[in-house]
Amino acid sequence: MRRAAPLALLAALGAAPLAAQDSAPCGGDFGTFLQGVEAEAVASGIDPATASAFVAGLGPDPEVIAADRRQGVFQLDFLTFSRRLISQDRIDRGRAMADRHATTFDRIEAEYGVPRGVLLAFWAFETDYGAVQGDFGTLDALATLAHDCRRPELFRPQLVAAAELFAMGEIDHATTGAWAGEIGQVQMLPADILENGRDGDGDGRIDLKGSAPDALMSGGAMLQALGWRADEPWLVEVTVPDGLDWASTGLNHPRPVANWAAAGVAARDGALPGGGPGTGLEARLLLPQGRNGPAFLAYPNFDVYFEWNQSFVYVTTAAYFATRLMGAPIYLAGDPDPGLSGEQMIALQEKLVARGHDVGGVDGILGERTREAVQVEQQRLGLPADAWPTPALLGAL
């Protein structure tokens, strides 16, 4: 997971804990761990005295571990998640921000090809347009997560990158941010700041916390580096015919847009982007809550969202919100079949794992791997293979 649940998102949704997990650290003695970090920092080219000063002030933060285990918001279904997170007030403020920073957004679109709605949605979800940036000690948070057993492979490099920013005078032990070590208005990790930090307001420094132009330009640069393709869509709401082959849906089934059009898939608002001859664009038909709920075509740019955050429900909501900020209508919610509770989802994942499926962890979260496994079992059982798990499927398994 590239990024964790943003603070503004957790505040809006009211985070519930996930199932209990072993929280014992895997890094051994914390002091010995810091000695290794110091040696790694020196090996990366940081002055030994600076590396020593960097690790000298670090300590574990149990509140960070508690926050890391408290990401049950991702167990919510798409309709619930998006309705709680997207309000008319948040849309209105986003459009006001687009007007206020129009010059910056014009530069971002010209230099990086990222539409303003995409960055506005991240800005809103990550920090509520800069208002909720977090008060965790950034360096302690990174050290805690790098030492912890759950994702050290993600956070150890970020801690060393933070040492580089420390050596440059960009951050210090008083720097604060999100519990997972992200900094600033669009919540960037240290390695991303080193690679993509930009001086958007021209004052000669990169201030991701206090300068919206700096934060937005940096976010645009990062999205381009992650593979954003200019002048292409990311998500388009569609209508689908009743007789569609549901097994052809899902993020693992790309097809040319023209093929989707030939199968009766139509844009709800206007023509399907990339549906003309010679465009070469492919898309996946995304049914977040099955064949009776909202339907979207997800284009290649949609994949970039998963580089920002690997939660399926967060990514889909952020991509949809970006289209709303760009003028798209409210989705057609439809009448989805009832889904599963968190406990039922865990039971389903256990059954899928027992059948040999890799669901990416039994966590009660309907991620893309779980959806793919559900679709396979739906096909096997002769059920509509729309990747939406229901009590009927759980009973059949």
TrEMBL record:
One of its GO terms (biological process) is peptidoglycan catabolic process. Residues 341-397 form the Peptidoglycan binding-like domain. GO terms for molecular function: peptidoglycan lytic transglycosylase activity. InterPro entries: Lysozyme-like_dom_sf, MltB-like, MltB_2, Peptidoglycan-bd-like, PGBD-like_sf, PGBDSf, SLT_2. Residues 30-322 form the Transglycosylase SLT domain. It comes from Wenxinia saemankumensis. It comes from the Bacteria. Keywords: Signal. This is Lytic murein transglycosylase. The lineage of its organism: Bacteria, Pseudomonadati, Pseudomonadota, Alphaproteobacteria, Rhodobacterales. Residues 1-20 form the signal peptide. The keyword Acetylation does not apply.
